[in-house]
Write a structure and sequence with these properties.
mainly alpha
Length: about 180
């Protein structure tokens, strides 16, 4: 699918901004997301305008989150440094406890599991046309839709079971370490 960046739909803008169409509607009405509706026809968006709007939105939100250091929060003594060190040590100990109790997981493990899950999903979905197509010959529209739905849900269920099996295998491997 090729995009016309000078005339994007709401759905295309949602995909490009990694947002929902509902978010696009909210931003259009309350946060001035630029759009065009010539003569009351369908609304469209121009990517350059949307991109600039999103950059400015991110800058504004980031500026609101960054607080300048005031003299009241500055370290004023060695005692303050010691207290800060104790707090930091306690936070590091809590992180260690959270990691050992599996409340937190190392990013590398999460990335590996997700990468494998995405690869399995891609493989399974790409195999659907060759598996399903021969079964669709001679069916009416509703039967085709039902058959596709069944195979998609079956594929999703198989992938979920596979992910659970992989997770259990990873937990056993972690316990062996």
């Amino acid at each position: 699918m090729e995009l016309n960046l000078k005339k994007l739909t709401r759905a295309e803008v949602a995909i490009l901004l990694c947002a929902t169409e509902k978010s696009i509607d909210i931003w259009r009405t309350s946060k001035d997301l630029p759009c065009h509706t010539p003569d009351g026809s369908r609304t469209f968006y121009i990517w350059n305008e949307v991109f600039e709007w999103s950059k400015n939105k991110i800058k504004a939100e980031t500026a609101n989150k960054i607080k300048p250091i005031s003299t009241s929060t500055m370290v004023e003594s060695v005692e303050d440094l010691k207290k800060a060190g104790i707090i930091l040590d306690n936070q590091l100990k809590q992180l260690s406890v959270d990691e050992k109790s599996r409340v937190l997981l190392p990013a590398e493990k999460v990335e590996a599991v997700w990468s494998e899950a995405v690869l399995k999903t891609k493989t399974k979905l790409l195999s659907l046309p060759s598996v399903v197509a021969p079964r669709l010959v001679g069916m009416d529209t509703q039967e085709i839709q039902d058959e596709l739905d069944n195979h998609i849900y079956l594929a999703l269920a198989e992938m979920a079971v596979s992910c659970l099996d992989d997770q259990e295998g990873n937990e056993e491997a972690d316990n062996d370490e």
